[in-house]
Amino acid sequence: MINFPEGFFWGSSISAEQSESRVKNDNKGLTTWDKYYELEPYKFHNNIGPDKTTGIYEQYISDIELLKKTGHTVFRTSISWARLIPNGTGEINQKAVEFYKDYFTKLKENGIEPIVNLYHFDTPLKLEEEFGGFASKKVVDAFSQYAKTCFELFGDIVKKWVTFNEPIVSVEMGYLKQYHYPLEVDSKKAVQVAYNIALASAKAIREFKNIVKDGQIGIILNLTPAYPRSNNLYDLKAAEIAELFANNSFLDPAVKGQYDKRLIDIIKKHDLLPEYTQEELNIISQNKVDILGINYYQPLRVAARASLPNPDAPFMPEYYYDYYSMPGRRMNPHRGWEIYPKGLYDISKNIKENYNNIPWFVAENGMGVEGEEKYRVDGMIQDDYRIEFFKEHLEWLHKGIQEGSNCMGYIVWTTIDCWSWMNAYKNRYGLIELEYDTQIRRIKKSGYWFNELSKNNGF
Ligand code: BGP
């Protein structure tokens, strides 16, 4: 039996844009995802866009019953900025206020603590079109105002808050790799957006401290430990730089209140320094996170580059490394991600040794599988592969905790199968199955297993 510390929390994560659905007359504003889907619907798996997703906006009361049946002691979701403030700034949508108040209150009444995130890739379209999204300091201030509104409206109910989910993904996918709107390839802007988001997070934390005196606030980062191909000096150097971009870039400002000098030097060398002021740097250094959420899916394996980079190509972190496909690595073929449970242990050591052992929790960990219907027996999806995936990760996490890591809980991705951006409903991650057309929900074998896990506080 592997036992977790007393008070360890168990739950799952989902996000607003991926789960709520848009309903007639709900007054939700448009997001960048609506725009992207309108422009290029064929880029989304089976042409499914962000309008009809998992229907939580209408079904949250019965969904909370399912959360209870699957052992949730916590549940993480996000507020849709465009639902609450349809234009991103200005008028508040009262229907959204009622919805979120009731949603969060009902969770608590059922013994489930809500962990609420403010931004999960879903910029209100108006702010993107008018100002260029997080590339603009105006949007930094709009975010801080939105955060303040949320703390004032819901801060008496919700006590655990998060400013951003996976900000590096917004930067990479929006400004380097063209998976998220605005689909640009602009390294200078990418750096500006990364800096602006770190600043927006710090400004939101500053608001939080004035309003919610008895809560905690953090940020959720997807950490992908960078492993070198070998002990060759240049492989090691490649991994060091990959680590700086992939992990330190947001960990350092969030937890330490400042950037790593090595990263600044590289950014300077490529003439990519963002616009900043000393006053902003002070805000970042004075408003660090209380807690950290960590999403872990896969490691980042790198090697020294085999060729010289083209000096004229737009800058990418890959200027300094090649991706390395380790022979014999275990893969989740549906998602194309390596499965490496020990990564979670390595993360726990990194946080303990290099980030003051700050209290943290796993905020996402999971396995997306395509075509899960084929595993249905007697009406239930027998997702033993997912249970194995969780167990292996939990074993390594447990080892990290035994060695002193300050991990407070394990939250998986995801609750009910949800809409995964361009992959839409291709890969299913849920503890609970969604029959998309009818919106019927059924608990999977992993959901019942998760209930036992939570009841026993271990397995
Ligand atoms: C994380 C996101 C989630 C979720 C998950 C699964 O990066 O925070 O929103 O989507 O990954 O990944 P995907 O949906 O790309 O398969």
Structure explained in plain terms:
The protein is α/β, with parallel strands linked by helices and 459 residues long. Helix content is 42%, strand content 16%. It has helices spanning 16-19, 32-39, 56-69, 81-84, 94-109, 125-131, 137-154, 167-175, 187-211, 233-256, 261-269, 278-286, 342-354, 384-402, 445-456, and strands spanning 9-13, 74-78, 113-117, 160-165, 216-222, 226-228, 291-295, 300-303, 322-323, 331-332, 337-338, 360-364, 369-370, 376-377, 380-381, 407-413, 427-428, 432-435, 440-443. An eight-stranded parallel β-barrel has the order 1-2-3-4-5-7-12-16, surrounded by six helices. Strands 6-8-9 form a three-stranded mixed sheet, covered by helices on one side. A two-stranded antiparallel sheet has the order 10-11. α13 (342-354) packs parallel to α14 (384-402). The radius of gyration is 21 Å and the shape is globular.
Q: Give a list of the ligands.
A: 6-O-phosphono-beta-D-galactopyranose
**Beta-sheet strand percentage?**
15-25%
How many helical elements?
15
Kindly report the spatial arrangement of strands forming the biggest sheet: 1-2-3-4-5-7-12-16
Shape: globular
Rg, rounded, reads 21 Å
Major beta sheet summary: 8 strands, parallel, barrel
Helix fraction?
40-55%
Distance between the termini: 5 Å
Low-confidence parts lasting 5 or more residues at pLDDT below 50?
none
Question: Brief description of this entry?
Answer:
By secondary structure, the protein is an alpha/beta fold. It contains 15 helices and 19 strands. 42% of the residues lie in helices and 16% in strands.
